[in-house]
Design goal:
Elements (H helix, E strand, L loop, with lengths): L1 H6 L4 H7 L4 H5 L7 H14 L5 H8 L6 H8 L4 H11 L8 E6 L4 E7 L2 H18 L8 E4 L6 H8 L3 E3 L3 E5 L1 H4 L8 H18 L5 H10 L9 H7 L4 H10 L4 H17 L6 H7 L5 H12 L3 H6 L2
């Protein structure tokens, strides 16, 4: 977030100082900001007022793949309709601060937001449209977007999104039936099926209290494919420090390295049960860039090669 603000010209040092923090403290991962620190941090950003439509500007800075499991699940869908339905179904895997539903009518399809701050919703709509436009070879253009509270600069928002911005009693976006059925350029039914199985499994476990190791595994499962399994990244997603993460795992008899390896081991066995996936594809899905390294790890885990393991299923 600091890098995004800096790219937009904000004085991040002043924002850090306003929150009562220091750069070294942030670099050391001393933990999430308190609500009061967050208020002061974003309050300083608002005081600087360098950029109107900050949610829109931030959305343009976030690349596809920043939310690996959900992003890849959507982009591997066959059509925009399939992708948005999955986005709606599994969005809580990345955030419970926003909620939206799909309303399908004969003349238009509406994505209606029922929960979320103005900032979060403006950011979410912009991010969804910009990424889906890219994945449809620039063919996706909403009929309109609508907000209950106006963006800072509705004209700029409309220009970037490529459609009119309206003020109404609901917040969301509308698509034509033709746009709803646009094909996704990287649709992959095999990959989509595998990722949806993983997302469904995570969603089923999400509401339960399965211990801290389960929480870490859930976060790791969404990060393995992208290779972003460093302890700092996982700790940030759990809003704790790396030191606290290690301490809580230790209390349950685990090290972080052991949890990462166990999560890879379980995921590899799960993916190998799907015979439509090649060994190389399974290797990629569990976070190995080198198939030979995956073979060595798998033999260490199970005492046999991935091919031999699959043959025994």
């Amino acid at each position: 977030m600091l890098k995004a603000f800096e790219r937009l010209g904000f004085d991040s040092a002043a924002m850090i100082a306003a929150a009562g923090l220091t750069s070294p403290k942030l670099a050391e991962g001393e933990g999430p900001l308190s609500p009061e620190q967050c208020e002061r941090f974003f309050g300083e950003a608002c005081r600087q007022r360098l950029v109107p439509n900050l949610p829109l500007r931030l959305a343009r800075e976030v690349p596809l793949g920043s939310y690996p499991l959900l992003d890849y699940l959507v982009l591997s869908s066959a059509t925009v309709a399939d992708g948005i339905r999955r986005l709606c179904r599994y969005f809580s895997l990345v955030s419970e601060a926003i909620a939206f539903d799909v309303e399908e009518h004969s003349d238009a399809i509406r994505l209606v937001y029922s929960r979320g701050s103005d900032f979060a919703v403006q950011y979410s709509i912009a991010l969804t449209v910009l990424h889906l436009r890219r994945e449809t070879n620039q063919r996706l253009v909403p009929e309109y977007v609508t907000f209950q509270h106006s963006p800072d600069d509705p004209d700029e928002y409309a220009q970037v999104i490529g459609c009119p911005v309206r003020l109404a009693g609901w917040t969301g976006l509308a698509l034509s039936p033709a746009t709803w059925q646009l094909p996704m350029r990287r649709g992959d039914p095999v990959l989509c099926q595998v990722l949806e199985q993983q997302a469904s499994s995570l969603l089923e476990r999400q509401g339960g209290d399965d211990g801290f190791v389960r929480q870490v595994r859930r976060v790791l499962a969404g990060r393995l494919t992208s290779g972003e399994a460093e302890i700092g990244a996982v700790a940030r997603e759990l809003t704790i420090t790396p030191r606290t993460l290690q301490r809580r795992l230790s209390a349950e008899g685990w090290s972080y390295r052991a949890v990462v390896e166990d999560t890879r081991r379980r995921a590899a066995a799960h993916y190998l049960s799907n015979r439509s996936l090649s060994i190389a594809e399974v290797s990629y899905l569990v976070g190995f860039s080198d198939v030979a390294a995956f073979h060595r790890a798998f033999r260490r885990w199970h005492g046999r090669t991935p091919t031999e393991f699959r043959a025994s299923l």
